[in-house]
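Thanks for the sequence, V.! I ran Nucleotidyl transferase domain-containing protein right away. Repeating your input here for the record:
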Amino acid sequence: MWVVLLACGRVGAEGETPAPRAGDHPSSLLLQVHSLSLRYAEPERILVVAADPPRAIAAKLLWQIPESNVISQPKDLDTAPALSLALAHILKLEPDASILGISCGHIFLPECMLSDVVSETLQALDDLHHVSAVVFGIPPDKPRSDRGWLLPDPGMNKECAEPYPRRLARFIEQPRHDVAQKLFGSGGLWNTFLFAGKARALWYLLGKRMSDTLSLVARHFGLLKSGDKGNSLADLYDRILPASFWSQIMAREPAEFLLVPLPAIRQVRLRLGQAAGTNPENEATTRALSSWDEGAEERAGAGHRPVA
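Predicted structure:
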């Protein structure tokens, strides 16, 4: 198992990233997510793809993971090109590898929300034969327009007592409020920017929508049969276009994804409330949870424009 941390890209369709809580600089989010990733992989199997990470942050990461596991992009071309670099790096070392992918430039997801669902899903990745990846969602508390929404396929698992996992029917990024209300009533989940799959399957998925980019990346990493290695990473990035894994890959290939829910925020809050006493870990988790509850109105006032 590899963990891929994508410290790049823009979450919003208009280019905005959800406003972080006080003190949550994107670089600190990267460090928090890196700490979380140690739950799923050894340091030498954690890969970071970042757009020119600050030296101080890179140094804090490098004392734990190999320097070769930090890929510094010449410029930020969003999450899909970044993921292609990570997949090429991993495929060259381990063609049958599984990965857990985490986008780091968004609201931090507390560890307790991942529970055992993620671990169980990771163990079952070898049994995925008809989809390329699993994406994790959170049951919503309200119909918010400042979230990405994952809508399950209503035709799946109708006869099963357990409603999940299901194929993904649609991904809708920051919908209008009236659309969010419909998604809320239709069983939609909030996107967590957390996904998992076999590296080879994800590589072919990217190739369906950005084949030219993958050809260039494969050549750069020496994956082609000719063994001919391409030009520098800077030259490569001058020849490829930006692309979002979410809005340009998942939104256009929803049937390639299986949707798995994580515990609802209210359930996590209830567990924390029942825990005897208080401790710093619970307090940190409560702060992280509140970042998911901040009103959409705050971001609307900051210039956010929901989209259909």
